[in-house]
Amino acid sequence: MADQQYVSDELLAYVRAVSLREDDVLRQLREETVALPAGTSLQVMAEEGQFLALLVGLTGGRRVLDVGTYTGYSALCMARALARGGRVITCELHQRWADIGAPYWKRAGVADRIDLRIGHAADTLEKLLAEYGPGSFDLVFIDADKQNYPVYYELSLALVREGGLVVADNTLFFGRVVDPADPDPQVAAVRELNTRLLEDDRVDISLLPVADGVTLARKRPTAGCNRVA
Ligand SMILES: C[S@@+](CC[C@H](N)C(=O)[O-])C[C@H]1O[C@@H](n2cnc3c(N)ncnc32)[C@H](O)[C@@H]1O
Known about the structure:
The protein has a single domain (45-219), classed as Vaccinia Virus protein VP39 (Rossmann fold, 3-Layer(aba) Sandwich). It contains 9 helices and 7 strands, in the order ααααβαβαβαβαβαββ. The chain is an alpha/beta fold. The longest helix has 15 residues, at 185-199. Strands 3-2-1-4-5-7-6 form a 7-stranded mixed β-sheet, with helices on both faces. It is 43% helix and 19% strand. Bound molecules: S-adenosylmethionine.
């Protein structure tokens, strides 16, 4: 039986060489972002962006929510994977970060598929719930401030349709989730979400120990069919 592999730099380079399909627009956005003070730790890894695009395709995503735009790498990956006529709504607190990504969205030809909402994400999600109603999104990707992860999760689960996906990033939080005594409220919030998800019978879950931890939560149909026991 195989066990979890340690991903050395060499192995990661191999994974990228055989599977990453990052084009010039994405690569240049990533490179511009990496040069920012916290660029590397905030932006999703390139392979995670590609994985998000695959998930959008698998869910037939027409309405997708991106919580935490930053310079827009995840928004761009998901916008490209939308079904015809689809839209990514992306939430960010600071306009200046999204301003860096916007020209890349335009170059990729998807600017008209990305709807940027500036403000606190919790307020934006509440407004979206009022605007579109419950169950109106195919996929939500949560990647904003960690203290609010439990709040974002509940709102996202209300927004996503049955069979749709809530994807949460950084659910291993740099490996710090293993320490219950870690005083950082971000760690406590991520630990709270992880624990809550295990008990949450509204969703099927998988915590993938890739990148900084990516959790998939698929909203179960209320009728109970198609459930994974
Ligand atoms: C980890 S980065 C997102 C990275 C992005 N998904 C990508 O692929 O590049 C988190 C972003 O969430 C934003 N943010 C933090 N708190 C927020 C809040 N309360 N509401 C909306 N955005 C917030 C930050 O400004 C930051 O740009």
